[in-house]
Write the structure tokens for this entry.
Amino acid sequence: MTAILRAAVGFSVAASLALGVAASPALGARRTTIDDFMTGLACVESGGRYYAVNSFSGSYGKYQIMPRVWLAWANRYLGNKWAEATPRAQEYVARNRISDLYAIHHRWPLVAHWWLTGNADPDQQMWSDASSGYVSSVIRIARLVRTPDGAAQVPARCFAQDLPQPKIRTEPLPRVVVTGSVVFIRDGAGTDNKAVGKVTAGTVLAVLSSRRDSSGRKWLHVGLRDGTKAWIASWLTQPRD
């Protein structure tokens, strides 16, 4: 995100820098850990809010992950690209992605730069003023929380949380094939719910769950290839072998 976009969802760079200047880590403080880095990242990206949404970019959550990126990362780390971005899932996915990035780049500033720009150019002379300010903000807060006095200045919701691990899918989701020629998919289970799209005969859908409508008819909550989730009448599909 740019500085303008970050200001819309959480700490501004200027505020983050001010926080970092308020109390520098004492000499001999421990090395920066992934928890420290995640705290700095969350503060700058969203102010530590799990339900923050950037109205400009659509990025979401505590670590401000773009929807299309969430699909890829959820598939990689949770085994399910349709997984909801719950607080548990956000913490787990972000931690795993950040861990992988650090294993590649070995320096927290490069990981922060990658998070913002999608690249980790080690030549900081090539960084823009905005990206340099962003990285500085993240690292200052990450260093600040390494001491008790510094940590006391950072909002509690910014800290990485030790939440129960979300469900990790190790087997493929069941699939169904659409048998109706053109079938509406809806935002709820039942024909009284709004149609949000159409699928055609032969389309393969992943089954996320099922429920019955008020008439007792079975509906399937399905995932489409593009990451969309919706409901479809089960009697217009058949299991895929």
About this structure: Residues 1-25 have pLDDT under 50 and may be disordered. The longest strand covers residues 204-212. The two ends are 44 Å apart (CA to CA).
